[in-house]
């Protein structure tokens, strides 16, 4: 068996794809308020910056930057996933369990990519912001409400009509449509 190795770079910036077990689910957007709380709880316990993010029905993409001397992004994702799952269960949302009796809401692993430079960051942020169009959820990226694109537009980093046409390349750990 191949042992997977993560690039645990203290203070690093990373692109992530995190996916629900049931790819037909819309739990992330249906309960986006609970997902936001889970991110806040994790950030309060162990700080990190959310540089870019998009929440889609069954998966999310994010660029996170960790504090200097800290490389534990797996622990942060574990906390986000756990808190969100337990909030859903506590509110009565039915969540299936695996053969060990554990909640089976999320895929066990996530995909990560270490951001190498500014060009890599921009490419990944563009992919994140264009993703709702790629999945045919909206015609224009600005139309998707669960995206950091709105923050980028408010800050003057991107125009409101950004991504109105074109295609962003790369699968970033997603199955091809």
Provide the spatial order of strands within the biggest beta sheet.
2-3-1-4
Please trace the helix and strand order, writing H or E for each element: EHHEEHEHH
What value does the Rg take, in angstroms? 16 Å
**CATH-assigned fold name:** Alpha-Beta Plaits
Find the count of extended strands (DSSP E, 2+ residues): 4
Total of domains: 1
Amount of beta strand: 5-15%
What's the pLDDT, averaged over the residues?
Answer: 90
What CATH architecture label applies? 2-Layer Sandwich
- Total DSSP helices: 5
Question: Which geometry do the CA atoms define?
Answer: globular
Structural features, described:
It is a single chain. With 177 residues, the chain is α+β, with helices and mostly antiparallel strands. It has a single domain (13-154), classed as Transposase IS200-like (Alpha-Beta Plaits, 2-Layer Sandwich), CATH 3.30.70.1290. It is 33% helix and 14% strand. The protein contains five helices and four strands, in the order E-H-H-E-E-H-E-H-H. It has helices at residues 27-30, 32-45, 73-90, 118-134, 149-154; strands at 13-19, 49-55, 59-65, 111-114. It has a four-stranded antiparallel sheet with strand order 2-3-1-4, with helices on one face. Strand 2 and strand 3 form a beta hairpin. It is globular, with a radius of gyration of 16 Å. The two termini are 29 Å apart. The mean pLDDT is 90.
């Amino acid at each position: 068996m191949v042992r997977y190795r993560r690039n645990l770079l203290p203070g690093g910036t990373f692109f992530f794809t995190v996916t629900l077990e049931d790819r037909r689910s819309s739990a992330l957007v249906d309960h986006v308020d609970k997902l936001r709380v889970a991110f806040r709880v994790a950030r309060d316990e162990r700080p990190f910056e959310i540089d870019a993010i998009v929440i889609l029905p069954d998966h999310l993409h994010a660029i996170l930057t960790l504090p200097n001397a800290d490389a534990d992004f797996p622990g942060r994702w574990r906390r986000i996933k756990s808190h969100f799952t337990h909030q859903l269960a506590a509110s009565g949302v039915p969540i299936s369990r695996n053969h060990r009796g554990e909640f089976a809401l999320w895929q066990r692993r996530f995909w990560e990519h270490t951001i190498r430079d500014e060009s890599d960051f921009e490419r990944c942020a563009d992919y994140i912001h264009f993703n709702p169009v790629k999945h045919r959820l909206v015609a224009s990226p600005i139309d998707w409400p669960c995206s950091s694109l709105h923050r980028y537009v408010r800050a003057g980093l991107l125009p409101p009509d950004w991504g109105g046409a074109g295609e962003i390349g790369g699968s970033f750990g997603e199955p091809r449509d």
